[in-house]
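Reopening this ticket.

The earlier resolution said the output was attached, but the attachment link was broken on my side. Pasting everything inline this time so it's all in one place.
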Amino acid sequence: MNRIPLAPLVKFVTLTVVVALATSVLALTIANASPGEHTSYTARFTDASGLLPGDDVRIAGVLVGTVDHIRIVDRRVAEVAFSVARDQPIPASVNAAILYKNLIGQRFLSLALGTGPTGETLPPGGTIPVERTRPPLNLTTLFNGFKPLFAALDPQQVNQLSLEIIQVLQGEGGTVQSLLASTSSLTNTLADRDAVIGQVIDNLNGVLDTVNSRDKELSDLISSLQALVSGLADDRKPIGDAIVSIGKLTTVTSGFVEEGRPALRKDITSLGDLAGNLNDSAPKLEQTLLNLPGKLETVSRAGSYGSWFQFYLCGATGSVGLEPYLPPAEIPAFTSASPRCGPDPSGVQGQNPKALGGIPPVAPGGSGPPGLPPALSLPGAH
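Inline output:
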C-alpha cells in the first residue's frame, strides 16, 4: 500500500492558504471594504451627480467607509446612504460634501466637523440635512470659463492649473497664492507671444474684411449651395439608382474589356507593325502621294461623261495566222505622232491642266481636236 508523501502535501496546503488570503485582501481592497462592523448613515444633497455606490467616505482625507446606495426622495433631493466604521464616531454637527478624487471624474463623500455643540455624535441611521451638505463642483461650467486660458497652455500646464483650481474651490488643499502664481505664469506666457497673437488678430481682421466686402456673393453662394443640396436630397433615390446602374455597367464593361483584351493586344501589335512598315516605306509613299493628284485628274477626265470613258488609239499592231498550216502574218503597226500619245499626254508639262485652260472635251462619238485620231467611245457599266 502506497503512502502519501507528507512534505509535498503540507507545502500544497500552505500555498493554498496563502493564495486565498492574498486574494481576499485584494478583493477587499478593490471593493473598498474594510473588516469590522459598520454604522449606516444618510446624507441629502441637491445634486449627487458622479457619486456612485462603492465610492470612498473620507474624514480629513482618511478612508473611513463607503457609499452604499443613492436614491431620490421628495422628488428633488438625492439621498446618499453610506456606512462608516463603528469605531469612528460621527459628530452631530457633521457637514458632508461631494468632492473630486481626481481629474478623470471620480468622486468621494467627504465628512467634516461643522459648527455646533461638541461632544454629541450622530446616532446610527441619522441623516445629515441638505442645509449641511454641499453638492459637487460642476467642472464643465468651470472649464468652459477657463477655455480661452487653457487654449494657450500646453497639456502639463493645463493639468497643473486645473488641479489647483479644483483644490482651491473645494477647500481641500492648495492656496490662492499658488493659483495666482499659475495665473501669473499664464499671463507671462501670453505676453511673450504678444506679437504672434497680434499677427493672428490682424490676419483674422483681413479675412473678416474680405468676407464682409463679399457679403452678397457669400449669401448667394450659400443660397445656391442650399438649393443644390436640397435638389440632391430630393433626387437622392434616382441618384442612388444611377450609381447602382453605373456599378453594374462598370462590371459588365470590365468583363467585355477582359474578354476583348487579347484581340485588342494583337490589333495594337499589328498596328505597330503597320506603322513600322509605313515608316520604312516613307520615300515610296511620299512619291505615290505626289503622283496621285495627276493620276486622279487623268482618270476623272477620262470618265467626265458619266457612263462613258474616252479612249484614243495611239497605236495598233497584230498578227494573223493559222498554225501549223499558215504561218502568222504581221499586220503593219499603226502609230500616232499626236502629242497626246507622247510622254506628256496632257500637254501641260507637269502643270495643272485647269490652269492652262485644259484640253477641249470630246463628245461621245465625235472627233477630237485637229491632228488627233478619232475618239473611241466605250459604253460603261450602268
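Reporter confirms the inline version is readable. DSSP finds nine helices and twelve strands in the chain. Residues 36-136 form one domain.
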